[in-house]
Amino acid sequence: MKWCIHKEDSDITNFTFLNERGFAYGDGVFETIRVVNGKLPLWSLHWQRLQQSLIRLKIEALNEQAILDQINALTSKQGEYKIKIIVTRSNNIDPSKTYTPDNHAAQCYIGVAPLNSSKIKNNTRKLVQLNTQLAKQPLLAGLKHLNRLEQVMASIELSTQSADEGIVCDTDNFIIECTRHNIFWVSDNCLYTPDLGFAGVAGVMRQWILEQASSLNISYRIARYPADALKTADEVFISNAIHGIVAVSSIDSRLYSQTAISQKLQERAQQQLGF
User: Fold this and answer.
1) According to the model, what pLDDT value does residue 143 have?
2) How far is the C-alpha of 259 from the C-alpha of 230, rounded, in Å?
3) Which among 76, 85, 90 is positioned nearest to 110, based on CA atoms?
4) Which of the residue ranges 76-80, 163-167, 179-183, 223-227 would you say has the lowest mean pLDDT?
5) Any alpha helices (H) in the chain, and if so which ranges?
6) What is the pLDDT of residues 18-54, one digit of tens each?
7) Residue 154 in contact with residue 168, Cβ under 8 Å?
8) What is the rounded distance in angstroms from the CA atom of residue 33 to the CA atom of residue 111?
9) Can you name the residues that pair with 84 across neighbouring β-strands?
10) How far is it, in rounded angstroms, from Cα 275 to Cα 270?
11) pLDDT in tens, 147-166
C-alpha cells in the first residue's frame, strides 16, 4: 500500500491532486490515439469527439494545432505509438466549492508510449457474456469520460473467464459494448450495432466503420438489441482505435466465421488507416 498524506496547515504544497478535478471527481474526458509512422489516421474523428465532449461537459475548448504540435514533438516519423490525451476541468480557485466548479478552463495532459503492433495483430477473439451491467445515463452516454469504474468491474469479472473480451449490457439487458471495444454483428447481409443513447462509449473506430459502410453500400442498423440477438448472427466483430477491426471466433459456446462485410471493412481500414 502507498500512502499520500496531505495536511492543510502544513508547508507541503505538492499535493495538488486533492484539488485536481479529474483525479477527485472524474471531471474530464480522454482520447486514446494510434500513431502510424508520424500520421494520426483517425485524428479528425478524435478531434470531433473531443470537441463535442468538452461542449457537453461545459469545459472550455482547446487549440487543435497546439495539441498536434505537442504530439509531433513526442513522436517520430517512424514506428507506431499510443497517445493518450486527458482533458480535465481546471482546479477550483476556491477548493471549498468541491463539486461546483468556479471556472471551466481546460487542463490538458498528453502521454505517449511505443506501440508494439505485433502484439495487437488482428487475431480473432473469444468473447463471453458478462453479468456486469452498465447504468443508463443519457447525460453522459457516448462520452469517453474519466469515470471508468463500470469498465474496471467488468474487466475484473472478465479476468475470471477463459476469454479475451466480454460483452456488457445495460440494466434493461440491452447490448451496449465490450469492456474495451464497440461491437458489431452481421445477420442476413446487414450490419448491426447497438444504440449508445443511454450508455457506452461512442468509439471513433465505430464512427469510421459506419461512415465506410455507407460508402461501400453496406446496409446497417443502429437500435437497442436484447442480449440474445447475437445468437442468430452470422458474424460478430469488435473495434477500437488501437486494435482496429477484430473478428470474433466465439461467444461462450457459439462459433462464428468471417463474412464478406467485415473483410471489405478490414481491407478499407488497411488501405486508409494502415491497421
Assistant:
1) 98
2) 15
3) 85
4) 76-80
5) 21-25, 43-57, 64-74, 149-158, 204-215, 260-272
6) 778 999 999 999 999 999 999 999 999 999 999 999 9
7) yes
8) 10
9) 32, 111
10) 5
11) 999 999 999 999 999 999 99
**What is the separation of C-alpha 191 from the centre of its chain, rounded to a whole number of angstroms?**
20
Which pLDDT score is estimated for 12? 46
For residue 4, how far is the Cα from the chain centroid? 30
Among candidate residues 135, 171, 138, 131, the one with its CA nearest the CA of residue 155:
131
What is the average per-residue pLDDT within 93-113?
91
Amino acid in position 183: I
What is the arithmetic mean of pLDDT over 233-256?
97
pLDDT at 97: 85
DSSP state of 107: E
Percent helix, strand, coil in the chain, to 5, is: 30, 30, 40
**Residue 168 in grid coordinates:** 456488457
Give the whole-angstrom CA distance, residue 21 versus residue 11: 22
Grid coordinates belonging to 247: 473478428
* Set of cell numbers at residue 73: 514533438
Please state, in angstroms and rounded to a whole number, the distance separating the CA atoms of residues 226 and 7.
51
Read off φ and ψ for residue 149, nearest 5 degrees. Answer: -60, -35
User: What pLDDT is attached to residue 5?
Assistant: 60
> For residue 245, what is its C-alpha cell?
477491426
Rounded CA gap, 176 and 32, in Å?
Answer: 20
- Percent over 70 (pLDDT), the chain: 93
* Amino acid occupying residue 230: L
Which residues face 77 on adjacent strands?
Answer: none
Query: Residue 134: what residue type?
Result: L
Other beta carbons within 10 angstroms of residue 113's beta carbon come to: 10
Q: CA–CA separation, 216 vs 219, rounded Å?
A: 9
